[in-house]
């Protein structure tokens, strides 16, 4: 539809981009280009990645704390068996509620038995892994996960991860506290090495000599043999029925929204009971389509970009509105209640995860709101004819398809 068709007769198409005083933005200095001089040191490689930040949309206003970061620029800790890199609040200040870790384990590679003070939610992005854990009521679980699958370990529950063949496992962890670090976990080997041997002997009912060869430094990640068939490990660990599943096949779940523009698949306590403190959405957006204008009333949104390219504008009080670009491996954070959209800016499918520190996924859609307000009231605000408002989408679409 031609956009001018929506303009009531007698109205001109408005010029957007200079709504504020004093005037701001490149659009308002087009006749005075000297004000836009940039002669200092520049990194063209970086600038080329952020077209919407370097030359912001005319509707952007003022500034706000960075809401973009990336695992691509995070240092990696590499050991035999695999590697990890992270983005905690120390690295990415706005990331209060979630700390993220990107990890790889080679086939057989083991992330050693450990636990921590926060919950651990994770999504598999490549390959296969075996996870083991013990619930707070003492029930064991051993499961295999692959691309698109999730796991969740409540705070304090012990666990291990192991890469499986042929490619090992790559995944992203989200801790439900921005301060939590992958290098700040309670490790099995550390505890053994720092407990008096006579106490270990007494605890396990064996001679002290049994512990003479334990490692004196922790292992964290180390190479191992690939484990036997899942059923063999489950039987060896004493797995029985009775425990809520610790894993969830998110990429195979029924979408909350689905149309020609894409889909949104949800994992929260309504369909994945075990995940008591983290909710997530897997969002798929076709070229030309968009995650619609919306906000989340109950938690900050932590985003991880899996594939494709996107731009997002975050609307804050003030007003503050800033736009930036996202690519695979990037991370974004949108504070609770701040308005946003995510537009597919590429020729390929865009896919990203929204992760929230809450038990239940919640959103408010702008289109859903405005289609449930008396049209005359909306018209009085926006100066749009009620007959035109009646053509707006009714209810939430999740994704707005390309028209
Ligand atoms: Mn862990
Ligand atoms: Mn969102």
Plain-language structure description:
The chain has helices at 44-47, 51-54, 188-193, 197-204, 230-236, 366-370, 375-382, 386-389; strands spanning 68-70, 77-79, 82-87, 99-105, 110-115, 120-134, 140-146, 149-153, 159-175, 186-187, 221-222, 247-249, 257-259, 262-267, 279-285, 290-295, 301-307, 310-316, 320-326, 330-334, 339-344, 350-356, 364-365, 399-400. 11% of the residues lie in helices and 35% in strands. The longest helix has 8 residues, at 197-204. The strands form three sheets. Strands 2, 3, 4, 5, 6, 7, 8, 9, 10, 11 and 12 form an eleven-stranded antiparallel β-sheet that branches. Strands 1-20-17-22-15-14-13 form a seven-stranded antiparallel β-sheet, with no helix packed on it. Strands 16, 18, 19, 21, 23 and 24 form a six-stranded antiparallel β-sheet that branches. The protein is elongated, with a radius of gyration of 25 Å. The protein is built from eight helices and 24 strands. With 403 residues, it is mostly beta strands. The chain has two domains: 71-248, Sandwich (Jelly Rolls); 253-364, Jelly Rolls (Sandwich), CATH 2.60.120.10. The chain binds manganese (II) ion (2 copies).
């Amino acid at each position: 539809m031609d956009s001018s068709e929506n303009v009531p007769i007698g109205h001109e198409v408005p010029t957007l981009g200079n709504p504020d005083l004093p005037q701001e933005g490149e659009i308002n200095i087009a006749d005075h280009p000297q004000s836009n001089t940039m002669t200092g040191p520049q990194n063209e490689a970086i600038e080329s990645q952020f077209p919407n930040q370097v030359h912001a949309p005319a509707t952007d206003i003022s500034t706000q704390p960075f809401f973009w970061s990336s695992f691509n620029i995070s240092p990696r800790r590499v050991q035999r068996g695999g590697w990890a890199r992270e983005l905690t609040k120390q690295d990415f200040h706005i990331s209060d509620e979630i700390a993220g870790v990107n990890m790889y384990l080679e086939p057989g590679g083991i992330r050693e038995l450990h636990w921590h003070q926060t919950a651990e939610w994770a999504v598999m992005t490549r390959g296969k892994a075996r996870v083991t854990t013990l619930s707070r009521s003492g029930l064991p679980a051993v499961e295999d996960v692959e691309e698109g699958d999730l796991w969740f370990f409540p705070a304090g529950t012990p666990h291990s991860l192991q890469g499986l063949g042929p490619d090992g496992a790559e995944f992203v962890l989200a801790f439900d506290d921005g301060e939590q670090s992958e290098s700040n976990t309670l490790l099995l080997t550390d505890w053994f090495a720092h407990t008096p041997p006579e106490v270990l002997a007494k605890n396990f009912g064996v001679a002290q000599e049994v512990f003479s060869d334990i490692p004196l430094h922790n292992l964290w990640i180390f190479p191992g043999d690939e484990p036997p068939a899942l059923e063999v490990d489950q039987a060896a660990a004493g797995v029985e029925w009775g425990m809520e599943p610790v894993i969830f096949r998110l990429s195979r779940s029924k979408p909350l929204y689905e149309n020609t523009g894409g889909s949104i698949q949800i994992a929260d306590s309504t369909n994945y009971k075990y995940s008591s403190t983290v909710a997530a959405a897997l969002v798929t957006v076709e070229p030309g389509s968009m995650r619609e204008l919306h906000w989340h009333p109950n938690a900050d949104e932590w985003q991880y970009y899996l594939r494709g390219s996107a731009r997002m504008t975050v609307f804050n009080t003030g007003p503050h509105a800033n736009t930036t670009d996202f690519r695979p491996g990037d991370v974004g954070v949108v504070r609770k209640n701040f308005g946003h959209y995510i537009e597919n800016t590429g020729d390929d499918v865009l896919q990203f995860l929204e992760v929230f520190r809450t038990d239940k996924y919640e959103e408010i859609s702008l289109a859903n709101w405005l289609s449930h307000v008396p049209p005359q009231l909306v018209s009085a605000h926006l100066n749009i004819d009620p007959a035109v408002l009646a053509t707006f989408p009714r209810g939430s679409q999740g994704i707005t398809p390309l028209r």
